[in-house]
Design a protein that fits this description.
The chain is an alpha+beta fold. The protein has two domains: about 90 residues, Arc Repressor Mutant, subunit A (Orthogonal Bundle), CATH 1.10.10; about 90 residues, Beta Polymerase, domain 2. The protein is built from eight helices and seven strands, in the order ααβααββααββαβαβ.
Length: about 180
């Protein structure tokens, strides 16, 4: 629940910028890249970077006229990184745990995931779209992580898979026979 606590204390834009570094600790980013990937305008990103460089969370390196930014190796940066990574990894687990209570949901596949959102494929016997949307909305309100999904019944899923339209998707939840 680290982001949950930080969301109440810190600006959402600050969290998005810091999260980018904690998810890619070895990568060096340019200002424009950070702004684009964190979905924060460039001027605000620049102000945030100045603050977190002073706090020794991020290291700035000047290369000619360009400047790159990378997660600092400081103890403070590493502690923050661990806290944010632990929380982020649980977002989809939390979602799956909540929708596993819906008896008609059989399978959840990860279609794609970025820093602040995930697209899922939910397979079942006509699962309740409204109830699933409510869970996704609650997660967004609490953690600023957007979950979008498409639903397929079991036959539609099998047909799509047979046609090669759904392949190489990571299964993040599968209802076992003991869960029925």
């Amino acid at each position: 629940m680290a982001v949950n606590v930080l969301t109440g204390l810190l600006d959402d834009k600050l969290i998005r910028v810091i999260s980018l570094f904690t998810k890619h600790p070895e990568k060096k980013f340019y200002l424009s890249e950070i702004a684009r990937l964190s979905d924060v305008n460039t001027a605000t990103t620049f102000r945030i970077l100045n603050k977190i460089v002073i706090q020794d969370l991020v290291k700035a390196t000047v290369i000619g006229k360009a400047r790159t930014y990378q997660l600092s190796k400081s103890e403070k940066a590493q502690s923050l990184s661990k806290m944010l990574k632990r929380d982020d990894s649980n977002v989809l687990d939390d979602f799956c745990e909540k929708i596993s209570m819906f008896p008609r949901v059989r399978l959840v596949l990860l279609d794609s995931k970025s820093m602040n959102d995930a697209k899922l494929i939910i397979v079942g016997e006509f699962p309740s779209k409204e109830r699933i949307e409510r869970v996704a909305s609650d997660i967004f309100d609490a953690r600023r992580f957007k979950i979008s999904f498409v639903e397929f019944n079991i036959q539609q899923y099998k047909d799509m898979k047979e046609l090669g339209m759904i392949k190489d998707k990571k299964v993040i939840y599968r209802k076992t026979s003991s869960s029925n």
